[in-house]
Amino acid sequence: MTTDTTDTAEPSLTVDELAARAGVTVRTIRFYSTRGLLPPPDIGPRRVGRYGPDHLSRLALIEELQHQGLTLAAIERYLQQLPQDLSAHDLAIHRALVAAWSPDTAEETTREQLERRAGRALAEQDLDRLAAMNVLERTRDPDAFRVDPGLLQLGVQLLDVPIALETILASRTVLMEHGRSAARELSRLFRDEVWQPYVDRESDADHVRTMKSLSAHMQPMVVQALVTAFTRSLREELRAWHDKDAGDATADGRSTSGA
After folding, report:
1. Which of 189, 213, 175 is nearest to 96 (CA)?
2. I need a surface site. Which of 13, 58, 93, 169 has the fewest CB within 10 A?
3. How far apart are CA 161 and CA 179, in angstroms?
4. 127-182: pLDDT as tens digits
5. How far is CA 107 from CA 114, 150, 199, 237, in A?
6. Rounded to an integer, what distance in angstroms lies between the CA atom of residue 47 and that of residue 8?
7. Dihedral of CA 182/188/192/194: which sign?
8. What is the structure's pLDDT at 215?
9. Where are the beta strands (DSSP E) in the chain?
10. Whole-model pTM above 0.70?
């Protein structure tokens, strides 16, 4: 699985800080721990448990699964099927896949609540970057925001990555344009190859119900397929880029040594 560099940091949150960042109670965290939904913390000096990014991402995933109506037993089974070595980045992807067919997971929050969840003060530039990453939306009230809680922690981690706001906006434009193109082509394929043959065979009475059922089943599968294809393609592009740079550096070294 992929490994995010932010996951290598030492766990630094107490249970109270973890609860504040995740927007849950300490009692909830301890309950999840006893059910095996959260891995145990690292034990530091004075026997104080320390939590890290993977705990935050797992709590966001649990919250999203609950929004989908899963029981705790079902969530336990879901988490048990995941590899044990998933990074916070991988868990964030799982959460995004689950949320992809959720009607709306954004929450209204004040700036004070937002900064408490983020675990840091947020400058206007930080808010602009989070908005560019679709982590939050501004409202008419400058102290109120609509926030995607599952993406918040990942977005906050990316605030420290040296990427210009313009680059984030350009990246979002590229993703939106190609996303719309893929959705358009997949919708056309679904309409021509799946829906139209059904319409030709069946009566009008069942059309709407069948369309809703097919859409509900297809959307999560299509989203997962797109994420998987994109992740693999990106990995291949980065590997090719790295290999080319390494080859160019080797060629330059040989040229220099032969001069």
Report:
1. 175
2. 169
3. 24
4. 999 998 888 999 999 999 999 876 787 788 888 888 888 888 888 788 778 878 88
5. 10, 10, 39, 36
6. 22
7. positive
8. 65
9. 42-43, 49-50, 107-110, 136-138, 144-147
10. no
Amino acid identity, residue 222? V
- Would you state the structure tokens that stand for residue 68, as one six-digit string? 């989908």
- Using the CB atoms, write b or e for 212-238: b if 16+ within 10 Å: eeeeeeeeeebbeebeeeeeeeeeeee
- Which CATH code, of 3.90.940.10, 1.10.287.600, 1.10.1660.10, 3.90.180.10, is assigned to 1-101? 1.10.1660.10
Position 123, amino acid: A
How far is 36 from 82, CA to CA, in rounded Å?
13
CB 138 within 8 A of CB 131: yes
The first and second tokens of residue 173, run together, are: 């434009």
Sequence ranges of the domains in the chain: 1-101, 106-162, 166-258
Dihedral of the alpha carbons of 142, 143, 144, 149, in degrees to the nearest 10: 120
Token pair 């797109």: residue: 226
